[in-house]
Design brief:
The structure holds two protein chains of two kinds. Chain A is mostly helical. Helix content of chain A is 66%, strand content 3%. Chain A has a two-stranded antiparallel sheet with strand order 1-2. In chain A, helix 3 packs across helix 5 and helix 8 packs parallel to helix 10. The longest helix of chain A has 20 residues. Chain A starts with a strand and ends with a helix. By secondary structure, chain B is of the alpha/beta class. Chain B has six helices and four strands, in the order βαβαβααβαα. Classes of the chains: A mainly alpha, B alpha/beta. Chains A and B meet through helix 5 and helix 6 of A and helix 3 of B.
């Protein structure tokens, strides 16, 4: 997926706005706050839903600024807003993801390969969280999604479906990272809240960009 | 004598502040001690920007030992460290030790002039 530095050309559509994408993600996360909270109460400390809403609200406050920035500056801004406003592992991991996206895009000239940048950014999340696929975390969704996008053959609805399937796949897993790992085998049988919120974000973005394509 | 500085990062501001009080008592005047804890809304959590400022506050040319509790405090501390210039980063180290016990031992060791690597080693034995 090649795209131009000017955010108006990302990803190949002319009439999208970062503020609209942020709003869609925000609304989807807010609509699911209670289920994220309930899942996190089962295997974590119950703050994941609130934390994700806080992050989305902070992004919404900066939404108009995001619209006027170049892509790499936009991702940098998203990263710093998440680092500064979202507590917990999610803030650190999503902040890292967007910081790496910004870094990757700033390295290139006029044309970017967004799918490569996304894949490298997912790798940076792996390093930051010391996490692997199968550890029952958001990485179980993020990584297969980035691989699928890199394959170049994915449609938006397929990406969203893959993300949701990947989130479901965390149910039987034993948590190896994060608070749920303290529960050991008792974490089995629960959907990981971080994986679910990642799938919710992917679905919201895919629906938005699907409408724009 | 330039002593190693100590930064205490907890999900809970109460734990961080309480542990810092103990550290200051044990370490005396020569050991810079800083703490942070909680998210920007006053709830439990951690934040890389607050950790960054705590590291600046406890900065010492002998290095800074950073103590954390849960996983995201470690991740956010790593992010805070990466804000520093590469040459400065080598003077910053996240300790692999239980928070309270580690800080107690490190405070007294820092006050007698132990190096960062000595403190790191002793912390790993706790």
């Amino acid at each position: 997926m090649k795209l131009q530095k000017d955010s108006e050309a990302f990803p190949l559509f002319s009439d999208w706005k970062p503020s609209e994408a942020v709003k869609r993600v925000h609304d989807a996360v807010v609509a699911n706050e209670q289920s994220l909270t309930d899942l996190d109460k089962a295997i974590g400390d119950g703050d994941h839903g609130r934390n994700m809403v806080i992050g989305c609200e902070a992004l919404l406050q900066h939404a108009e600024e995001l619209d006027v920035l170049d892509l790499n500056a936009m991702f940098e801004k998203i990263s710093s807003v998440l680092f500064n406003n979202m507590g917990g592992a999610a803030g650190a991991l999503y902040g890292t993801l967007f910081a790496k996206l910004a870094f990757c895009l700033a390295q290139e000239n006029e044309l970017y390969d967004f799918s490569q940048a996304l894949h490298r950014s997912a790798e940076s999340v792996r390093q930051r969280g010391k996490v692997e696929v199968g550890n029952k975390t958001l990485f179980d969704v993020l990584y297969p999604v980035s691989e699928f996008i890199k394959s170049g053959s994915a449609t938006f609805s397929e990406i969203a479906n893959l993300a949701e399937g990947a989130a479901e796949s965390t149910i039987p897993m034993t948590a190896k990272r994060g608070r749920a790992s303290l529960l050991g085998e008792r974490s089995q049988g629960h959907l990981d809240p971080g994986a679910l919120s990642c799938a919710i974000i992917v679905r919201a973005l895919c629906e938005y960009f699907g409408e724009k394509s | 004598m330039t002593c190693v500085g100590i930064v205490i990062v907890s999900h809970s501001p109460l734990i961080a502040e309480g542990t810092a009080l103990m550290a200051k008592e044990l370490a005396g005047m020569n050991v810079p001690v800083a703490w942070c804890g909680g998210n920007i809304n006053g709830g439990l959590g951690s934040n890389s920007d607050m950790i960054y400022r705590s590291i600046l506050e406890a900065w010492s040319d002998a290095g800074v030992a950073i103590f954390v509790d849960l996983g995201s405090t470690e991740m956010n501390s790593q992010i805070a460290i990466e804000k520093f210039a590469k040459a400065k980063q080598s003077k910053l180290s996240i300790m692999n030790a239980p928070l309270v016990e580690g800080v107690i031992i490190a405070s007294s060791r820092a006050s007698r002039g132990d190096s960062l690597s000595e403190i790191r080693k002793i912390c790993e034995t706790i």
